[in-house]
Amino acid sequence: MEDGRGRRILAFLMMLVAAIASVSNAAPPESTARRHRHAYASMMYMGTPRDYEFYVATRVMMRSLSMLRVEADLVVIASADVPARWARTLRVEDGVKVVTVENLKNPYEKQGNFNSRFKLTLNKLYAWSLTDYDRVVMLDSDNLFLQSTDELFQCGQFCAVFINPCIFHTGLFVLQPSKNVFKNMLHELDVGRENPDGADQGFLTSYFPDLLDKPMFHPPANGTKVDGSYRLPLGYQMDASYYYLKLRWSIPCGPNSVITFPSAPWMKPWYWWSWPVLPLGVSWHEQRRKTLGYGAELPVMLIQSLMYLAIMAVTRMARPSLSKLCYNRRPEKSVAFLHNVLKVAAMWSIVAAYTVPFFLIPRTVHPLLGWSLYLLGSAAFALIVINAFLLPALAVLTPWIGIVGTLSVMAWPWYSDGVVRALSVFAYAFCCAPFLWASLMKIRGSLQQLFEREAFFPRLGESTQPPEFSKLY
After folding, report:
1. Which residues of 127-149 are buried (b: 16+ CB within 10 A; e: fewer)?
2. Which is the CATH superfamily of the domain at 33-291?
3. I want to staple 174 with a disulfide (CB 3.0 to 4.6 A). Which of 28, 159, 187, 336 is the partner?
4. Position 118 confidence tier, pLDDT thresholds 50, 70, 90
């Protein structure tokens, strides 16, 4: 009796635990997935050489917002041609709501000053179609959040920061979604509203021409929303260039919440080569390390490292063998022509040794990993050139030493300000120039001496290895 009752109680408890587990593991229904009235939104489209890099940057930004525990949904407005695996990763791994849209046709493509990389930036106007939300903070992917900015959801119908004294920046702005406004914007595109640059920046500054005369936004202490348009304090869009002048932030107004990087496309903070040219790149990569990590790039970097180490090991054991390419003396004119060809080949091989590794490294790796792999790869290829053309090692490796010195000078942390840093780099380059020129002359002289001794084209039966040249140890 007691045993039967105990078994029934045990069975009931097991069923209860199973039911609780099934409820907790079940995916929330679509209707309850959104829990917030506000959203941080960004956009993603295809068609540029940097699509993958902006995809990674968007993921890092969204994950950093999640770590700040913002009280808002995270939304990416993705064009229909964004790869399905990217959209799935954003939804499943990053907790982002992906809204798929068709690209808006840009009517300003034939403007004289139009830049083709801005062709699809008008997709940003889709932010006004997100009418499920009361307020949306629209973002570019090159923003670095230092702290939560949820108070921006108290702002009015349109709010933006004036980085330029006269033109507001569209890398971050607050809007109140409205289908009427969205339809009106599409109508303005159809009729060809004036647009100074043919991109979202020019269109929005034309659409909201009087924002400069609006009052500064200060969030009400009671958490209520304000109506109308407002200028946002500069602390919500701190231009990275303000930092580089003093090598520190000196912005007295605003909350100092967001850093933006409106620099040249190839100098965005996620590119490994942008540091130490732009020191704040390390701050972006620190945020990536904490959020996304570098698991996608590490296998490629490991393979490259092993390849370079293998090249260096083989080069150390190999002897020059170019002389085996020819076994009889050519006529004088042919030899002179071939000597010139080999000189050009040697010079271009040196250039290739310092450029090829640069393009093999994954673009978004951490700068310390990127530069270390670059130096390893360039040293490996330089050793091939040294042994193949019997060149003096120090002369060929002089640029390598100069690059190491440049990185050290630029990364030196105790400069008083950016001007002193720039002057120091200039002085270092000025001092290095004579050494680079001397190494170039040394290489040319070594090649000429090598050809005069006919090391590359000996008579049949002559030694193919002059005694004064040996393999590099």
Report:
1. bbbbeebebbbbbbbbbbbbebb
2. Spore Coat Polysaccharide Biosynthesis Protein SpsA; Chain A (3.90.550.10)
3. 159
4. confident
169: helix, strand or coil? strand
Beta-bridge partner residues of 135: 38
> Any bridge partners for residue 231, and if so which?
160, 216
**Contact in structure between 184 and 203 (CB atoms under 8 Å):** no
User: pTM for this structure?
Assistant: 0.83
Q: What is the mean pLDDT of residues 48-67?
A: 94
What is the residue whose two structure tokens read 């940097």? 50
DSSP string, 182-237: HHHHHHHHHHT---SSSSHHHHHHHHSTTGGGSPBP---TT-PPP-SEEEEPGGGS
SS (H, E, C) 282-314: HHHHHHHHHHCCCCCCHHHHHHHHHHHHHHHHH
Tell me the C-alpha distance between 183 and 125, whole Å. 10
The residue type found at 423 is L
Which residues of the chain are in CATH 3.90.550.10 domains?
Answer: 33-291
Written as one letter, the residue type at 352 is: A
Angle at the Cα of 472 from the Cα atoms of 303 and 407, rounded to 5 degrees:
55
* AA identity, residue 327: Y
Estimate to the nearest angstrom the gap between the alpha carbon of 264 and the chain centroid: 11
101 vs 119: CA distance, rounded Å? 15
What region, left, alpha or beta, does residue 188 occupy, with left being phi > 0 and alpha being psi -120 to 50 degrees?
A: alpha
For the stretch 257-315, pLDDT in tens is 999 998 788 899 999 999 998 889 999 999 999 999 999 999 999 999 999 999 999 98
* β 238-239/135-139 pair status: unpaired
CA-closest candidate to residue 258, choices 171, 174, 143, 155: 143
Q: Which has the closest alpha carbon to 41: 152, 207, 165, 162?
A: 152
Residue pair 362/301 in contact (Cβ under 8 Å)? The answer is: yes
> Cα–Cα distance between 433 and 429 in angstroms, integer?
6
C-alpha count within 13 angstroms, C-beta hemisphere, residue 126: 23
Check pLDDT > 80 for residue 456. no
Lowest mean pLDDT among 33-37, 130-134, 142-146, 309-313: 33-37
User: CA–CA distance from 364 to each of 57, 66, 270, 293, 379 (Å)?
Assistant: 9, 21, 5, 11, 22
